[in-house]
Amino acid sequence: MTRYIRWTLLLLIFPAMVHAQSTSITLNEAVELFKQNSLQQELARYERLSKQGEAIQYKAYPNPEVSINREQLNAGTVDYQETTYMLSQPIELLGQPFLRSRSASKSQKATELQFEYDRLQLIRQVKSLYAEYWQLSEKLEIYNRALEVIRKARSAAKARQAEGSFSGLQVQRFNVELNRYRKQRDQVQLNLRQTGNRLATYLFSGQELDTEFQLSDSLTVDPINVQEQAVVQYALANRADLAALEQMVDASELQYKVEKRDRLPDLNLNIGYKEQSDGAEGFVIGGSIKLPIFNQNRGNVTITQAQTRSRQTELTLKQQAVRNQVSTAYERVELVLEQWTSMQEDAMDQSMLEAAWAAYQEGRYSLVELLDATEAYVDGQTMIYETIADYNQALFELNVQSAGQISNSQNN
């Protein structure tokens, strides 16, 4: 009986223990998990598929029409019948099918390029959430260290109060500081949980969303070695969204040509076979056209002309926007790098906090000096890790805006 209970408990506890084990992932592994599991990426794929379908439908050639007519022509007592089998096919004589096919190909290419850019944006979000989760994890450790110092100091203060060498007001001050840091720590812990949940929605799907993970990469500040103008020119030549818009401009120009040619009538070719009840039979051939008297397709010509000019203007604005986006992202990287450099002077680390605690124990630091040292440690270390995360997030943004030149230059 005891053995049975032991095995039952093991079967109940073991899955929970396995589930509780956290997965350690690097930044590159996070990107790979996103590519494999992301529902956001799946939505982008469906959008791409929908636009590809529109392009395929646009270039589709009209289907032929088959008709069968049977005529009963009785003259008195004579039973006379005629049966006609007819195939009708619209034929565009001015090359519209070829123009539509070229336009559709460019639209499909634009769809692929836009999907590529959208996926890069989603990957940037994954990397930014990774950096945010990393800095919140570090910040949580900072507050835990500060709380440990405050708890030790409060315990020492209570002991001194019992000896009569410490006032109750000083103990109360430690209580206030302890509650303050605990409140801030709890808020950081909540933000960490929320960020982790957001990151998990990009990396896992279904039941795997409950997977706990830890980050194994430690972010650093690595200065870039490319000039701003070089980054701008590279982006103008290689940005996928810009190339997609260029393809859409070409597609619109071809659509405009199609609509202009559609002002002239198309031939409707009819080929068939006729049988008569008297034994006579033979082929039938004919044709028809729509006379462009009332409708000369002016509306569609005007619409496609406006769309073409609109996209040409949009392309010019997009080129200006790319320049501004790259310049702004580059400047952000430079500014955060300057902040990081200035922080390296007289930065307060954990050893200084421990030294302040030791000095307080020895009586060389007062209560105010210990609390000031603790606050300086928390603020300084928090700012350092926030700046590291900001720098990497700025790099991720610049990498997307520059069409991947930053990652290419760093790999080289």
From TrEMBL:
It holds the Pfam family OEP. Residues 171-198 form a coiled coil. Keywords: Coiled coil, Signal. Residues 1-20 form the signal peptide. It comes from the Bacteria. SUPFAM superfamilies: Outer membrane efflux proteins (OEP). The keyword Membrane does not apply. The keyword Cytoplasm does not apply. Belongs to the outer membrane factor (OMF) (TC 1.B.17) family. This is TolC family protein.
